[in-house]
Amino acid sequence: MSKENNHISSYKDHLLVLALLITLTVITVAITSIELNAFNTAAAMLIASCKAAIVLLYFMHLRFDQKIFLIMAFLVIALLVVVIGITFIDYLYR
Amino acid sequence: MENNHLPNYLEYRGKRTGLLGWLTTTDHKRIGLLYFYSMMTFFLTGAVLGILMRLELIAPGRQLVDAQTYNAFFTLHGLAMIFLFVIPGVGAVFGNFMLPIMLGAKDVAFPKVNLLSWYLYVLGAIIVLTSQFMGDGPPDTGWTFYAPYSLKTQTNVVAAVFGAFVLGFSSILTGLNFITTMHRMRAPGMGWKRMPMFAWTLYATGWIQLLATPIVGITLLMLAAERLLGIGFFDPAIGGDPILFQHLFWTYSHPAVYIMILPAMGVISEIIPTFSRKPLFGYTALIVSSMAIAFVGYFVWGHHMFTSGMSEGARWVFSFLSFIVAIPSAIKVFNWTATLYKGAINLQTPFWWAMAFIFVFMIGGFSGLVVGSLATDIHVHDTYFVVAHFHYIVFGGTGFAFFAAMHYWWPKIYGRMYNTKIANIGLLIFFTGFNMLYFPMFILGLMGMPRRYYDYLPQFQDGNVISTIGSWIMISGLIIIITNLIRAKKQTGKIVDNPWNGPTLEWSIQSPPTLENFEELPVVTHGPYEFK
Amino acid sequence: MNSNNQNMETAIHTHSDMHRDDTASKLGMWLFIFTEILLFGGLFIVYSVYRYMNPVAFHLAHEELSITMGLINTIILLISSATVAMSITAIQKGDKRLSLYMVGATILLALVFLINKYFEWGSKFEHGMYPGSDLMDMLSNGDMLFFSLYFFMTGLHGVHIIVGMVLLAVSWFKIKKDAVRSDKYALLENSGLYWHLVDLIWIFLFPLFYLIH
Question: Which chain B residues are Cβ-neighbours of C24 within 8 angstroms?
């Protein structure tokens, strides 16, 4: 394994990532408590996606692993987004 | 072979022998055969139910059974054939057996998980089958479990749904295993572009299994929760949307059609070069088309729902996408026929099966355009036209390819040759019966006979009689084919290693293979279809 | 036949430990995670469709949920994700003791999450709001869908928490017995991946259920 994956994240990096994630969480709560109409949901989802990306890239190590894992994960998430989009073609035009 | 020191996988005795040796095996070849035997059992069960349904439909009114029993028959026929035979089908049996050998590997990546998949398959099958006999009577929803009827019917839906869920899990694990095997276990020199086409189709299939199955899994769980826990998702009475159930159901179940057909196409792509003595025409195009089918096939589910009340915009988008997915399928047929061109064709039984496959698959494919196009589908939706179409694709496609694979790899699996003359006669009878059974359904459907009904108007009787007689012919062909193969297995006739001069790696080792397949890992130096 | 048996015995030995492929196990885990993403993906489709159809009801229904509770649980899961990631760093550096502590901390945090969830669900149940209750049956359409989705999605997420805890507990014992160590830590790494997935899902569940505006 060490041949193919020799990157070891430091403890400090993990803590920094954690701090970033908690900050983003607090920001979401703050944003959704003020009135921005439709933008609230958009902002909440955008921040959630950022958090998810951070977890995937750093905690789940996609940034440092073989590229194939990153490509696969990206395509799978893109697939889910497209499926949701296609489903909504029905509901938006009802 | 006389210079063969190691026992083959059938003779091999490990710690446990006899039946236990099979039930605890992690050998991909034995697991493939475990799937094969259990699957044939379910296939024959489904076939008997089909025959009984045809017999009931020979004339209007009651012949054999009452309407509720008939509903149970077609639900069980659908469940057994779809979930227990064609979905795992070619991949679980021949994929398990051949894939590692074709890659030059000794086994799949996770042999224990592979055995677990089989156990889950059997468990799921048992649950599905017992749902017929336990509780409040056999499910009468059809294999689609459409809400809201599946929420209201008093029959044993939850058990059947749970069985389907377990089967889905088994399918996911098989896909996971195959993909990992192809990524990690290829022999030295076996680059991606040197993998046989069958392996490539299993790769595409594996991704569909992984990414589509969970959607139906969660949908069925929601259905079960709605029935058991008193929460609501799909019941219109509490604001739920039954069409959403259909969306989710077909988000899996349409790609499932490609889970069935892609490995079947892979089998045909193996047989045609072997018997034309020519490399597969357009190897790269076939890889691309397999991946394209898997990918685009994910976005066309809505064409099952043209009359459900889905919005106008969605309907034309789905119709358009469905036409797009016809292109890669057509590329495949074109490449197979182009492979034949100027080939040194060897007219053996597997080749005839492949030709029969192309014939019926073309009819199925073209009728697919009729149901995929919005305007005509409104007319033929839920008629026998659809029944004919999907039997031509699912049975004519996957079923024929399954039999083609059996005839192609039988000498590999058992090291014994069958009687090719009887096999050809059996195929001819089977093929005649098949077309007689299903072709009249196209006409009945165009005349307006609705599917799934127990009874019909007198003007539909002629077609139904022809169809029922066809079912008798087809079953006779089936009996001939199967007895011929079983006899070959029992005979101690001449052992053949490579009767067809097959080019791919599985033919380079002895038949039946040894436990390890390769005593030494092969080093691959050329593509899959090089003939000397 | 006897000599054959002998032959095969040795063959099967080389067969089983011939090569350990940690990348293969990791790939297997990732593929499994993809299926989990799609499993919850199906629920997110249902959620978004029903929210689109019942915007007002979903907004009003979410006010029944406590943002504080959700926020606390979110932070607990984020911390547990960090601790499990640190346990992997520790094992890679050969620090067995710290790795054990970190896996232990993760399991503990998971337990706290579940206890919180228990109280959160419990307060709903006390108010007569649980699947199949009379109150739930009387809900208006949108509310009914919201709470059905709430119970089902957080419930399924809870099941995943428990599975993750089991995986982590197994890893803990393996580290203890040195079966997981600095040159062989695929099990811990894969359990960690699974645990991050649980966190990943919650990252979306939290704003979708607690923070609707």
Answer: 109-110, 180, 183-185
Domain of A61?
A: 11-92
* Structural domains counted in chain A: 1
Write down the architecture of domain B25-508 according to CATH: Up-down Bundle (1.20)
Tell me if B215 and C39 make a contact (CB, 8 A cut-off).
yes
Q: Taking the mean position of all CA atoms in its chain, how far away is CA B357?
A: 13
Range of the domain at C188: 25-210
Nearest chain A residue (CA) to C86: A11
Q: Do C152 and B225 touch (CB under 8 A)?
A: yes
For chain B, list the contacting chains (3+ Cβ pairs, <8 Å). Answer: A, C
Looking at residue A38, its pLDDT comes to 73
B9 contacts B509 by C-beta, under 8 angstroms? no
Put simply, the answer to whether B214 touches C38 (Cβ < 8 Å) is yes
Whether residues C186 and A1 touch (CB distance < 8 A) is answered with yes
Classify residue C175: in a domain, yes or no: yes
Contacts of B262 (CB under 8 A, 6+ apart): B201, B202, B204, B205, B208, B290, B293, B294
Residue A82 lies in a domain: yes
Whether A4 maps to a domain, the answer reads no
Q: Is residue B201 predicted with pLDDT exceeding 50?
A: yes
Residue A79 and residue A76: Cα distance in Å, rounded?
5
pLDDT at C200: 96
Tell me which chain C residues have a C-beta less than 8 angstroms from the C-beta of A29.
67, 71, 211
Separation between Cα atoms, residue B412 and residue B418, nearest integer Å: 12
Chain A residues with CB-CB distance to B under 8 A? 68, 76, 79, 82-83, 86-87, 89-94
Per residue in B342-375, pLDDT tens? Answer: 999 999 999 999 999 999 999 999 999 999 999 9
What pLDDT score does B144 carry? 87
- What does pLDDT average to over chain B? 92
Contact list in A for residue B251 (CB cut-off 8 A) is 83, 87
H/E element, B158: helix B157-184
| pLDDT score for B398 | 95
Residue B226 has pLDDT above 70, yes or no: yes
Alpha-carbon span A59 to C85, nearest angstrom: 6
What interface predicted TM-score (ipTM) does this complex get? 0.93
* Structural domain total, chain C: 1
The nearest CA of chain A is from the CA of C109 a distance in Å of: 15
Which residues have C-beta within 8 Å of that of residue C123, sequence separation ≥ 6? none
| Cβ-nearest to B516 among C11, C23, C32 | C11
> Which residue bears the tokens 């074709």?
B102
Closest listed residue to residue B517, CA positions, set B96, B81, B53: B96
pLDDT digit string (tens) for C51-103? 999 999 998 888 889 999 999 999 999 999 999 999 999 999 999 999 999 99
